[in-house]
Amino acid sequence: MTVTAHSPLTDVQPDTDVAKRAAALKRVPDDKAMLRAVAELTRDLGTPNPRIFWSDFLASAFLGYAGLAVAILSGNLWLQCVAALVSVLALYRAGGFIHEVSHVKHSALPGFRFGFNAVIGVPLLVPSYMYEGIHNLHHARTRYGTDQDPEYLPLALMKPWTLPLFIFASVLAPFALLFRNAVLAPLSLFIPALRQIVVERYSGLAINPAFRRRPAEGEAHRNWIIQETAASIWSIVLLGGVFSGYIALNAFLIFLAIVSSVAVLNQVRTLVAHLWENDGEPLSVTAQFLDSVNVPPPGILASIWAPVGLRYHALHHLLPSVPYHALGEAHRRLTAQLAPDSAYHCANYDGLTGLVARLARSTLVRGA
């Protein structure tokens, strides 16, 4: 962990005092100088660049599907493995744009939501309605880290077995999504009670099992229905093609394996997006920032496992409307301008391995 400043949390050892850190987190006041600098130094970075968005997204999707095609069609095992790896990493990056779709002003990127859903969202069974209207709740000032946050679990304060279960659940994601779209969604049109369950519990990319989604309204409801219908038709056609023999079972299984691998990679990334040390109480903005993670350069692996700006996840919690391609510049400005004792310098970490090990040790200590 790279810490060059002092905060109430740096006096508590992360591996042995998890409960103390959770208590200290609730006492962290807002670093007003940091928050003021964040607002002042990044005012010109809020506009998304359509060329960067479209070229990055389409290139990633093309590479991902090309790798999938080679993995399915090649008769060379080694080539299949390499192509599958390329496909997983590229589709993972392309899928990461669902995060940008949930934040960006759509008038600034006309057609991008449709493009995302047509190219990635529907084919990979994760249309953007499953994230839009969910992710913004994670950023709500009074919801972060509480039982009303769909994207938070106090993992550092839970039992050791929760971590492997957390990862294993993502392995089954494509199977669950196929069943949801091909079976539950059509049936729910005729069974109101089932529809309520589908909407509340199976229509959002959430990790908090206690979260219940509310039905969308207005334009959001219209987008939901269109995307859900498309995902249902695609799922039914896909399964129908397999059962009728038009789609080879081997090709279908390779597709599922790649989609499942994308889901696992994203779940591992989610595992280290936060420190997960809040025990359910509302936090100050600075405390939310300190419970989140930046993995800035010079390391380059984070650009692979935390693409599309996700390596600056803590900074993103301070600047949720800043597009992914501007977060690196925002980080450079803030790092250069903020004083050494600023809380901003306390959310920078070295890499994936250390963060996973820290979280695992926390659960082991907690479960002892």
From TrEMBL:
Q: Which residues form the Fatty acid desaturase domain?
A: 77-342
GO MF terms here are: oxidoreductase activity, acting on paired donors, with oxidation of a pair of donors resulting in the reduction of molecular oxygen to two molecules of water
Report which residue ranges the record marks as coiled coil. none
Give GO BP annotations, semicolon-separated. lipid biosynthetic process
Which controlled-vocabulary keywords does the entry list? Membrane, Transmembrane, Transmembrane helix
Determine the domain of life of the protein's source: Bacteria
Q: Which residues cross the membrane?
A: 52-71, 77-94, 114-131, 161-179, 231-259
- Give the UniProt entry's GO cellular component terms: membrane
Q: Which Pfam families match?
A: FA_desaturase
Q: What is this protein called?
A: Fatty acid desaturase
Annotated organism of origin: Sphingorhabdus wooponensis
Traced from the root, the source organism's taxonomic lineage reads: Bacteria, Pseudomonadati, Pseudomonadota, Alphaproteobacteria, Sphingomonadales
